[in-house]
Amino acid sequence: MSELKPGDGELHTPDHDVPENAAHAYWRENLTLMGILLAIWFTVSFGAGILFRDWLDQFAIGGAPLGFWFAQQGAIYVFVVLIFVYSALMGRLERKYNMSDDND
Amino acid sequence: MDSTLIWTAIFVISTFGLYIGIAIWARAGSTDEFYVAGHDVHPVFNGMATAADWMSAASFLSMAGLIAFAGYDGSVFLMGWTGGYVLLALLLAPYLRKFGKFTVPDFVGDRYYSQAARIVAVICALFVSFTYIAGQMRGVGIAFSNFLHVPIEIGVIVGAIIVLFYAVLGGMRGITYTQVAQYCVLIFAFMVPAIFLSLQITGTPIPQLGFIGNAQDGTPLLQGLDTTLVDLGFQPYTDGSKSMLDVFAITLALMVGTAGLPHVIIRFFTVPKASDARRSAGWALIFIAILYTTAPAVAVFARSNFIDTVNESTYAADLAPEERPDDATPDWFYNWEETGLLGFTDLNGDGRIQYRADPAQNEVTTLDRDIFVLANPEIGNLPAWVIGLVVAGGLAAALSTAAGLLMVISSAVSHDLCKKVLLPNMSETQELMVARTAAVVAVLIAILAGIYPPGFVAAVVAFAFGLAAASFFPAIFLGIFWKRMNKQGAVAGMSIGLLTTGAYIIHFKIGFSPIVTGVVALVLALAGLVLFIGTREGGKGSLPVLIGSGVLGLVGLLGVTGLLPGLAPGAASDWFLGISPEGFGTVGMLLAFAVSIGVSLATPAPPQAVQDMVEEIRIPSVRAHPVHDGGGAD
């Protein structure tokens, strides 16, 4: 883990003009990705934990009814995974469009 | 002197010493360091600091107990207070970090090219933070008085001085690194008793597995608890009593509110890059999830264990511990009875404790929800030092949140109000001095609010999250994702969201008594006055605003002197669509979105320069041309 000094952040940030069409393509792909991940976010919490909980409760995970488990445990695990997936896929997207601020 | 007290004193004093040491090491010298820790906090450290910032005394002490009594209904807090980080990581944090300023009102003011929008944002930030910080200070005082036997007032003052010390000296830098230490203390303190409790009740050391596992007799724990609760006349644990719409609304309001809370957002200004902001939100949620997935397990263990060991047990407080019969009430019960958090009245005179849903038969007449975390070490037969650890953990949770809020208050006053609105010619040194003075004044107010808690502190969850959801979130979200959004839309949306949500919560939680109406009117009058001064151009201000605040001021004076008619608090049966005040933030947010979009479309598009700025923010990891990045370059 390298030590960061003030001002390092600015050095990592590429400083160049992005062609307008590249910027638009990047933004569209970003929005699509967000849409998919937010749909999962909605499904595991509001869907599995609230709206369809009664139906899901006929199944069980260990000793817990499934809908109840999603509301108190499962949704949280999925949230964590979603953020890291988004972070990784955005990193890939930014390298694809030569916009990455990561130099590792 | 008993060993618990000694251990508690040792833990509290040594952790406080640690925080002070860190503060001296991390002093801030510039506004950049003071407001955003110089933008050089490692994402994992920022994740820990965010987790400590976020998890308050309520998360640490009260949440598990709250869930233990609410069962399924408690899920709103679990999903609501974690799901917001997904919104934050995807929709807000990277873009706000790219914007690269110090505060949330900074973004609102610049994006909406409007002092009025900035002032409305400052008012929201101050109100939300003050409500929240008063609750934290109260928590610190209670922890001190229960465990170290000092008066609440002294506890509040000692806690406040510690926070003040590292906030004033180190600003965001000092706060960040003390929060990292506080996270370590609080998570260790929460997990140790939880692991032992899980081992004792389910035989597995991992509480999350114990939650879905079997009790020692081989039946699934949750199923057993459901059956027992129904036998005693309670609701089954896995069923809720709130309507589905209300559960939906509360969860959404808490999620969106989390993403819109200024003290959470500013943490993401401290990392070096936009990609770090995303990653850091992920780390923050991992650190939060450790506690948030353990709390529901602790809730089930504690409720099951309470019924198993206390219900139908023989009350033997008068006998010495070694003389008590095998079916006697456990020792910890008597200890906690002394604190007043537990109470037993032998209604039927049979010498046994009957725990029932029906108040006419229930003999556990007092059962404070905080007991389930506080008494865990004793329930698990853990040594005395674990109790000291839990107290230090509760204090760490309260102090870290208080410090984050203090930062928002201090920067809102010094940077957003003084530097950007009232005294634009201030130098950096002067600004830093105002920031430190503002922190001192804010702490003094917080001490008062902690010693004499005002009524609205009880409604802190509804207020803080409802108002953040209804004001900040729509303004920031539309500011990034809709270029056409203009200042008229932002000001109208934030004001309507704030006023309707605020009025609904006050009506159903507190009631518009003359004094409440008066204070609200005075606050609005003051806000109007600041708005008048801040939006003056060439010595001429907006006359309607001045007249409006004059009228509000008069109404306020009438109210506080008791000359206005009062209105009783609303009844739950009158809730709009059955949505509780805690969930009304969702309605307020939808209203704010609708008003913002409607008003924006009816008024001219924002200037080209602002639209270009939005385009630039949307490529968060690239600087298209050298822009202002912190450091007073604006």
> What overall form of chain A do the CA principal axes indicate?
elongated
Strand residues, percent of chain A: under 5%
CATH superfamily of one domain in chain B: Sodium/glucose cotransporter
Terminal CA distance of chain B reads 59 Å
Cα Rg of chain A: 20 Å
Reported by name, the CATH topology of one domain in chain B is: Sodium/glucose cotransporter
Could you say which structural class the secondary elements and strand pairing of chain A correspond to? Answer: mainly alpha
Assembly state here?
heterodimer
Strand order of the largest sheet of chain A: 1-2
Provide a descriptive summary of the structure in words.
In chain A, α2 runs antiparallel to α4 (66-96). In chain A, β1 and β2 form a beta hairpin. Chain A has helices at 8-12, 20-51, 53-56, 66-96; strands at 60-61, 64-65. Chain A contains four helices and two strands. A two-stranded antiparallel ribbon of chain A has the order 1-2. Chain A starts with 7 loop residues before the first helix and ends in an 8-residue tail after the last helix. With 104 residues, chain A is mainly alpha-helical. The longest helix of chain A has 32 residues, at 20-51. Chain A is elongated. Chain A has a domain at 40-104. Chain B is mostly helical. Chain B has a domain at 3-301 and 385-459: Up-down Bundle (Sodium/glucose cotransporter), CATH 1.20.1730.10. Helix content of chain B is 69%, strand content 1%. In chain B, α6 packs across α19. Chain B is globular and about 85 Å long. Chain B starts with a helix and ends in a 17-residue tail after the last helix. Residues 624-634 of chain B have low confidence and may be disordered. At the A-B interface, α1, α2, β2 and α4 of A face α5, α9, α10, α11 and α13 of B.
